[in-house]
Design a protein that fits this description.
Elements: H1 11-16, E1 32-35, E2 43-46, H2 52-64, E3 68-72, H3 78-90, E4 93-97, E5 100-104, E6 116-118, H4 123-134, E7 140-144, H5 147-150, H6 155-163, E8 167-169, E9 179-182, E10 189-193, H7 199-208, E11 216-220, H8 227-239, E12 244-246, E13 252-255, E14 264-266, H9 271-284, E15 287-290, H10 304-310, E16 314-318, E17 321-325, E18 336-339, H11 347-353, E19 361-364, H12 376-386, E20 391-394, E21 397-400, E22 409-410, H13 416-428, E23 432-435, H14 447-453, E24 458-459
Parallel strand pairs: 2-15, 3-14, 6-7, 10-11, 18-19, 22-23
Antiparallel strand pairs: 1-23, 1-24, 3-5, 4-5, 7-9, 8-9, 11-13, 12-13, 15-17, 16-17, 19-21, 20-21
Helix pairs in contact: 2-3, 2-4, 2-8, 4-7, 6-7, 7-8, 9-13, 11-13
């Protein structure tokens, strides 16, 4: 499987056709990948690609700083490629060598007037850039995205930015890209937002705060759907010199006007990606150690190890890494209900291993994942039913019953998390054919190569 990257991607053509693929994509033009069952335990120690959440936050704030920043452990994925392309079109200098990026920030020169930016399917860029662009020095900027991203409205974010003075027009679809943004329009001040839909909307307002003449004072009217990601944003803002004050539950946050300063940052692995490899240890009675993300992280998906421990796995925790070993008896423990809202990106990983437990597992409070790259609740329910697993779908989640999945060919719906979760299911059961496998490039282009490196049979 090594080196099976498919055909090259022309970024200009991808932009013109409204696609999210980039020159950093893997498996472009490859219609399917076959994942074979693994009868022996998966045993490995590995470092995984960098965090998407940290990578795009750091890239954007470094580009807005005055001076040169260095980012190490950069995630080379579709989302980060398009983020970098957008920042260079604004005038930032970005040089990438391997997993290290040197960034000469825009500082007071932001943004280049009348720039046209394309961010592919990068949801973080779509939510983080509008406020920063509205806080620029003049001119009009157009922010466009892939067809998939154009179908994901951002009404709460745009309403908040407009209440802070931002001039944002949506000429095609209400509250969705493409966006026409007038730079210099964001004045700042107080704003009340809902946090129940997406933490990224809150982060998008906060990140613009230092560049608004009045700063921003964000009050959350209800609750934050994934509070850890807002805390991650505040941490990264402080790293780049922002003055931030927030209460404990992040429902009242103040950002002072000022500037971003350059920083040197080492980015940890993506905890969401780690869940798939740790899950493989669980379902094969193996042992997997991830060396570059541990309990010191803000990433909520690392709490997946707590769920695996509840299911009978042995877990070793350290600030910089974690190890999971499958249960001694060979069967995972089920028979419980769980609120997955705090780590909702791991919902599909849990659903993929739930059939191998000794009792049903009911997942609750993740209605918002129906509005991600796909309707993830409906898609995983359909996939499990297709391979013979009894599953009950609810508006806010699902219940998966024990069973032995059969083989089959599975649609991924252009959703990276669907593809990676189904790969875990295939390894643990009778194998699966994963259609459109290149969608993993959104967050982990080498995913199938990493599987092959663990001894899993992977053929394209």
């Amino acid at each position: 499987m090594r080196g099976c990257v498919g055909e090259a991607v022309d970024p200009g053509r991808a932009e013109a056709e409204g696609r999210g693929q980039s020159p950093w994509s893997a498996l472009v033009g490859v219609p399917h990948v076959d994942v074979a069952p693994r009868r022996a335990p998966v045993t490995a120690t590995l470092a995984l690609p960098g965090s998407k959440s940290y990578t795009n936050r750091a890239l954007i704030l470094a580009a807005m700083a005055e001076g040169r920043s260095t980012l190490r452990g950069l995630l080379r994925s579709d989302d980060s490629y398009w983020c970098i392309q957008a920042l260079t079109r604004l005038g930032a200098g970005v040089v990438v060598e391997g997993e290290t990026a040197e960034i000469d920030g825009l500082g007071g020169r932001r943004p280049v007037p009348d720039a046209r930016l394309y961010i592919g399917s990068a949801g973080t860029s779509a939510r983080f850039l509008p406020g920063l662009l509205a806080a620029g020095d003049g001119g009009r900027v157009v922010l466009d995205a892939s067809r998939q991203m154009r179908a994901r409205p951002m009404a709460p974010l745009l309403a908040a930015l407009r209440s802070l003075g931002a001039a944002v027009v949506c000429p095609q679809t209400p509250d969705a890209p493409p966006l026409e943004i007038t730079s210099g329009s964001l004045t700042g001040g107080p704003v009340t937002m809902s946090g129940a839909v997406s933490s990224q909307f809150i982060s998008g307002v906060l990140m613009a705060g230092p560049l608004a003449p009045r700063g921003v004072h964000v009050t959350i009217a209800d609750h934050v759907v994934q509070k850890d990601y807002v805390a991650m944003t505040l941490d990264m803002m402080r790293t780049f010199g922002a003055e931030v004050d927030a209460n404990a539950d992040l429902t009242d946050m103040r950002v002072a006007p000022g500037v971003y300063r350059p920083a040197d940052v080492t980015l940890e692995a993506d905890a969401s990606t780690a869940t798939y490899f740790l899950a493989l240890a669980a379902v094969t009675c193996g042992r997997v150690t991830v060396t570059n993300v541990g309990t010191a992280t803000r990433q909520p998906d690392l709490r997946f190890i707590d769920i695996l421990e509840r299911m009978g796995c042995a877990v070793v925790r350290a600030p910089g890494g974690v190890t999971v070993a499958g249960p001694d008896g060979g069967r995972l423990t089920g028979g419980f209900d769980i609120d997955m809202r705090p780590l909702s990106d791991a919902t599909l990983t849990l659903a993929a291993i739930a059939p191998f437990a000794d009792g049903p597992i009911a997942i609750h409070n993740v209605a918002h994942i129906r509005k991600h790259e796909s309707d993830r609740i409906a898609v995983i329910c359909q996939a499990l039913a297709q391979v013979g697993i009894t599953v009950e779908e609810r508006p806010d989640g699902l219940t998966v019953h024990p069973g032995r999945p059969t083989a089959g060919a599975m649609e991924t719906h252009d959703d990276h998390r669907v593809a990676m979760a189904l790969a875990v299911l295939g390894v643990a059961a009778e194998g699966l054919r994963i259609l459109d496998p290149g969608c993993v490039s959104k967050t982990c282009p080498p995913f199938f190569d990493l599987l092959a490196g663990l001894g899993v049979g992977v053929t394209a």
